[in-house]
Amino acid sequence: MLSHKNKYILYLVLINGLLAILLFGYGKVIFENIHPVLGIAAAMTMFFLFEIFVMFIIEKKSKILTSRKLVNLFFGLKAGKIVLSLVFMAVYAFTVKIEFKPFLGAFIVLYFIFLLFDTFYLLGREKGFKKKQVKNEL
Questions:
Q1: Model's pTM, two decimal places?
Q2: pLDDT of residue 44
Q3: Burial (Cβ within 10 Å: 0-12, 13-18, ≥19) of residue 121
Q4: Is residue 77 within 8 Å of 54, Cβ to Cβ?
Q5: What gap in Å lies between CA 65 and CA 112, rounded to an integer?
Q6: Cα dihedral angle (73, 78, 84, 85), rounded to 10 degrees?
Q7: I want to staple 103 with a disulfide (CB 3.0 to 4.6 A). Which of 36, 42, 77, 129 is the partner?
Q8: Which residues contact 128 (CB under 8 A, 6 or more apart)?
Q9: For 63, phi and psi rounded to 5 degrees?
Q10: pLDDT value at residue 25
């Protein structure tokens, strides 16, 4: 049986693979130029690496932090993701300047897909914590 961490990584790889297939299969239909497609692929890679980083930090810190501090850490990491995303969009806007509005729309959709994925991960972790607390109380 796969651990929670391994399931998370597997699902993250599957979602990224599916998004990559959709992007490279339909990217030329949505965008007139290849630059936005490559920009979205770079954003997917950035989000993937960031989510793996967040998962490892949360897994490591969940053993030593209280639940309140763990939630604060999680939201701090999410704020970091927002800042990283804004920097990424600014760099794209100032360097590439090609089809920025469609790129921005696709980037926001991608951001929310990963946000939903994060939310389900955190809910799964909280359910696991609650089950452990119930077992320890009995």
A1: 0.81
A2: 92
A3: buried
A4: yes
A5: 28
A6: 180
A7: 36
A8: 4
A9: -80, -20
A10: 87
Nearest to 66 by CA among 129, 3, 127, 122: 129
Cβ–Cβ < 8 Å for 30, 102: yes
Band of residue 82 on the pLDDT scale cut at 50, 70, 90: very high
Residue whose token pair is 């030593």:
64
Cβ 39 vs Cβ 103: under 8 Å: yes
Question: What is the token pair recorded at 65?
Answer: 């932090």
Give pLDDT tens digits for 33-81. Answer: 888 888 899 999 999 999 889 888 888 887 888 878 888 888 899 899 9
What's the chain's Rg over C-alpha atoms?
18
Q: Which of 121, 1, 119 is nearest to 56 (CA)?
A: 121
